[in-house]
Amino acid sequence: MLVINCPFCGPRDEREFDYGGLAKAPRSKVERVASNSEWTAYLLHPGDQGRIADEYWWHARGCGEWVRVRRDTTTHRIEQSEVESDR
Ligand SMILES: [Zn+2]
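That is the input. Now the predicted structure with zinc ion docked in place:
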């Protein structure tokens, strides 16, 4: 069981949350059109993040806010959680 620290509600059982997928890397600030392979990689592989993954979690059975969580996928240890403003 994960305990996710909601920035608004404090530590909560993961069952209060719905998983929202991997957080995508921010779009490049480069002023050019991405190639097809670059765009495909951005959409399908939102980050080859290894064992540390940035994820979206929605506090569906709580405050209703989206939380961005940095989690070690091997130990499930949550290293950071913060308000997600891009959702
Ligand atoms: Zn909450």
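Residues 6, 8-9, 59, 62-63, 65 surround zinc ion (CB under 6 Å).
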